[in-house]
Design goal:
By secondary structure, the chain is of the alpha+beta class. The protein has nine helices and four strands, in the order βαβαββααααααα. The chain starts with a strand and ends in an 11-residue tail after the last helix. The mean pLDDT is 97.
């Protein structure tokens, strides 16, 4: 397998965590987003969205981090990243989508570039935008975790939701969000980072880290 990703991309980190939890090896293919390498014709020929992460597995090319994680769970079922019971699976997916759909897209690089270059927001207004969506979104996640959390987001084994939570907390710290009101999130994040699958895939450990 090959993973096209960027070290600081939280969506890419989600997939690196999932691969590590599964014990799956892959070739790391760095795509530097700040240098616009995702816009190169060679990468565009692989994915019209020109986004990372992108997983190549044999002849298959799979985009979108959650689709990749579910693909890995279906093709390499042990250890599972989703529960077997349908309601529990839906709850984990909902928790993951609270991050993947309601927080992350509003604060990714192309949105922030548009806010600055097209709409003319200065750095302070951009930071206010980031904090508004991250802190509000994580408040929802914190409430959900009151019902589902054990050592991890859903019980006592790491899964899909943890793959998304840890990179989002990393982004929140990096953008100076106030996380004082999220004790469950911070506890789970700290526990996850004590495990090799999370710590060894940290952005600072990537081959293209800066």
């Amino acid at each position: 397998m090959e993973l096209y990703n960027y070290f600081r991309s939280s969506a890419s980190w989600r997939v690196r965590i999932a691969l590590a939890l599964k014990g799956l090896g892959y070739d790391y293919r760095g795509v530097h987003l700040l240098r616009n390498e995702q816009m190169a014709a060679e990468f565009g020929a692989l994915t019209p969205a020109q986004l990372v992460p992108l997983l190549r597995d044999g002849d298959a090319l799979i985009s979108q981090s959650m689709a990749i994680i579910e693909y890995l769970d279906e093709t390499h079922p042990e250890p599972p990243l989703l529960p077997s019971e349908p309601v529990a699976r839906a709850q984990v997916r909902a928790l993951a989508q609270d991050i993947a759909c309601e927080i992350h897209p509003l604060n990714n690089l192309r949105v922030l570039r548009y806010l600055v270059k097209v709409l003319g927001l200065d750095e302070e207004r951009k930071s206010q935008w980031i904090r508004h969506w991250v802190e509000g979104g994580l408040a929802v996640v914190e409430q959900r975790l009151q019902k589902s959390a054990g050592r991890f987001c859903f019980g006592d084994e790491p899964g899909m939701a943890d793959c998304l939570l840890v990179p989002q907390v990393f982004n929140a710290h990096r953008t100076d969000c106030n996380l004082d009101g999220f004790p469950t999130i911070l506890r789970i994040n700290e526990h996850c980072l004590s495990l090799p699958a999370f710590a060894d895939t940290h952005p600072s450990k990537c081959p293209d880290a800066e």
